């Protein structure tokens, strides 16, 4: 039986292919945890270079399931709560650096 979706989501198209962007936390949990077997594959575009195509973002079928099984424990609520202050600190530092450029209006190299 297919689940019925009652949450808001956005759609966009890449060529003729429609993609749905999910931003509702409960729906993300349902798709990625409870109904994972229905949504096991990632997008396949065949536009990626070879090294990128082998990355975790483009794994498919049983290889994606294996890697997901290894990665999932690293993203437990406990582990994420440990990392959150570090991410917040890095974001604050980035914003402090970018604020100088925003105030001056001068162009800058974002990669640097």
TrEMBL record:
Its main location: endoplasmic reticulum. Signal peptide: none annotated. GO terms for cellular component: endoplasmic reticulum membrane. It comes from the Eukaryota. It is found in: Endoplasmic reticulum membrane. Gene3D superfamilies: Cytochrome P450 (1.10.630.10). One of its GO terms (biological process) is fatty acid metabolic process. One of its GO terms (molecular function) is steroid hydroxylase activity. Pfam families: p450. Keywords: Endoplasmic reticulum, Fatty acid metabolism, Heme, Iron, Lipid metabolism, Lyase, Membrane, Metal-binding, Monooxygenase, Oxidoreductase, Transmembrane, Transmembrane helix. The keyword Plastid does not apply. The keyword Transmembrane helix applies. Its cofactor is heme. This is Thromboxane-A synthase. It comes from Trichechus manatus latirostris (Florida manatee). The lineage of its organism: Eukaryota, Metazoa, Chordata, Craniata, Vertebrata.
């Amino acid at each position: 039986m297919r689940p019925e979706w009652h949450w808001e989501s956005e759609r966009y198209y890449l060529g003729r292919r429609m993609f749905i962007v999910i931003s509702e936390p409960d729906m993300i949990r349902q798709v990625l945890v409870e109904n994972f077997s229905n949504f096991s594959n990632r997008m396949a575009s065949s536009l990626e270079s070879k090294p990128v195509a082998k990355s975790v973002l483009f794994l498919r079928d049983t290889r994606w399931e294996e890697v997901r099984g290894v990665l999932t424990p690293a993203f437990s609520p406990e582990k994420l709560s440990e990392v959150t202050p570090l991410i917040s600190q890095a974001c604050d530092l980035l914003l402090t650096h970018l604020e100088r450029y925003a105030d001056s209006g001068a162009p800058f190299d974002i990669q640097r």
